[in-house]
Design a protein that fits this description.
The chain has helices at residues 16-51, 77-103, 110-125, 134-146, 156-161, 165-170, 185-198, 202-227, 232-243, 246-254, 259-272, 284-300, 307-314, 319-340, 342-349, 374-394, 405-418, 428-435, 442-456, 468-499, 520-528. It is mainly alpha-helical. It has one domain (30-499).
């Protein structure tokens, strides 16, 4: 028995202990190979789905210069649909297998995880955007800014009527015809810079956007590695959750979503809010910097305002630090909000009650797939608050020197699991936090929910596939099976909170060791004593 009451399997040459230890090593090695096979095969399938620029995963835009890697051809819809579904399943299985192997003692070289993940990231940055048409909207909003028009007031249709080539390209995506920007002023500034560099080529603008995403993704991975460099197990786990996770790479880098920039700023803000050993106090410069960085994240995507109450909760007993964090947030948000104007906030507020097609609320009524009634929307928002409080109360302890991580994870998970409009790339805010969180069954709930949401949105925002039975299968998956599994994920998270069975074996009666057999003389002596 090892110190602290934990059982330890000892190696006994030629004995039972040796046999058991050998089987454990073989199982761990098998899990490691399964992890490698699942992750690599998933990434390869995703690369194939992205490189063929006329396939259904890639936005339909005019061919132009700007992308170093693309094949101007089309794969059959059935191949792309079932291939991307397989990629999500293989990627999730690979990540889970790797996490179990790390828990059982496997250790992977950090250079291999970082190097492999970042090579994949920069390959996807050079490929056409896949899995979403959002990059086209970024390009058109950037073009508007270059032309001196506000993306919070101008629609792509209006830009197309002026004869602008980027606006005309956006007309190939019906969803964006009349959509104004819901992204923050810093996101608009990034889109302006990409449009300035990319000119009148949609692909060139998207290339710049994806390259900046890849740089931020790499910065997050390297920041995690430095933070956890003294703990090989947590270090390997963090890279499995973030750096080499095919699901993360697909929704953030392959699809080119701006969420990775917001996640990077928000994650950095929570990381620099360090508690001093001993008294647990936070230095005022760190609090100021945390508020500033979280404010910058909100300037990209307002959804990251969820990190603000996390800072407030972490600093609730330190009023000076609380004030410094609030000041930092105001410095970041104030000038940017004045520049964006009230149109930005009106557009953001206009999304209230809008329900995603793949949310589980469509199971209650098909009418809930588009827009929830105001009463129903209010109930969902109250349920999100209730779940956030439950998570804040019952989540396992977070890193003791990072006091804002636990509340930030609680608030973001409540929103991602229950809110009526979320998309898989929104999960970037929770996945980054989970990567530095101690291992527990929370990994299964969060990554499982992420995989289900990603599966539901494949092969992209297109459901008119050929042959027709493929289109029918995609609709059933997105509107029936995956929403049901998303609801199961919510139930599983609540069950874990109520029972607090975050670790395997918690809540079970410990096994009693079988006493060794006694010789006749020894048994007689014990009876007489």
């Amino acid at each position: 028995m090892a110190s602290g009451g934990r059982s330890e399997t000892r190696l006994t040459v030629g004995g039972i202990g040796s046999s058991r230890n050998g089987r454990k090593v073989d199982r761990t090695r098998g899990l490691s190979w399964l992890a490698a096979a699942g992750i690599v095969s998933s990434l390869l399938i995703m690369i194939v789905a992205s490189v063929f620029a006329r396939s259904i995963t890639v936005p339909n835009v005019p061919r132009s210069s700007g992308l170093p890697l693309e094949i101007w051809a089309k794969l059959p819809d059935v191949v792309v649909t079932f291939g991307t579904w397989a990629a999500v399943v293989l990627g999730a299985v690979g990540v889970f297998a790797g996490l179990i192997a790390v828990r059982r003692g496997a250790r992977y070289p950090s250079w291999l995880l970082i190097g492999g993940g970042l090579v994949a990231v920069f390959v996807f940055a050079l490929l056409p955007a896949a899995g979403s048409t959002d990059t086209v909207s970024y390009a058109v909003y950037g073009r508007m800014a270059v032309l001196g028009r506000s993306p919070y007031l101008t629609t792509p249709y209006q830009l197309a009527r002026l004869g602008d080539p980027i606006g005309i390209a956006a007309m190939h995506q019906p969803y964006w015809h009349f959509a104004i920007s819901h992204y923050g002023p810093i996101a608009t500034a990034e889109e302006w810079a990409a449009a300035k560099l990319g000119g009148t080529s949609v692909n060139a603008i998207i290339l710049w956007l994806k390259l900046w995403n890849a740089i931020m993704f790499a910065a997050i991975a390297l920041g995690m590695d430095r933070l956890l460099r003294s703990d090989p197990a947590r270090r390997a786990r963090a890279h499995l959750v973030w750096t080499v996770n095919p699901l993360v790479i697909w929704v953030l880098i392959a699809a080119g979503h701006v969420d990775v920039l917001a996640a990077g700023f928000g994650f950095a803000g929570l990381m620099i809010l360090r508690a001093r050993p001993g008294d647990g106090r936070v230095a005022l410069p760190a609090a100021l910097g945390a508020g500033l960085l979280v404010g910058l994240a909100c300037d990209i995507m307002f959804d990251y305002f969820l990190f603000a109450p996390a800072l407030a909760w972490a600093l609730r007993k330190q009023w000076q630090a609380f004030g410094a964090a609030a000041l930092g947030g105001l410095i970041a948000l104030g000038p940017a909000s004045l520049w964006a104007g009230t149109a930005y906030f009106r557009g953001f507020a206009g999304r209230s009650g809008f329900a995603g097609a793949d949310s589980f609320y469509g199971l209650i009524s098909p009418a809930f797939r588009g827009h929830l009634p105001s009463g129903m929307a209010l109930l969902v928002e109250l349920a999100c608050i209730a779940l956030a409080l439950l998570l804040l109360w019952r989540l396992p302890d977070g890193p003791p020197d990072l006091p804002a991580i636990r509340p930030a994870l609680a608030f973001s998970l409540a929103w991602l699991f229950l809110f009526y409009y979320t998309l898989p790339w929104y999960n970037a805010m929770a996945i980054g936090l989970l990567a530095v969180y101690p291992a527990s069954r929370l990994d299964w709930a969060v990554i499982g929910q992420f995989a289900i949401a990603t599966f539901a949105n494949l092969p992209g925002l297109v459901y008119y596939l050929h042959p027709h039975w493929v289109s029918y299968a995609a609709k059933i998956s997105s509107f029936k099976f995956m929403p049901l599994l998303l609801f199961v994920a919510v139930v599983a998270l609540v069950w874990l909170c109520v029972t607090r069975r975050w670790q395997p074996g918690v809540g079970r009666e410990p096994r009693r060791a079988t006493p060794p057999a006694l010789s006749g003389a020894t048994a007689q002596q014990r009876l007489l004593s």
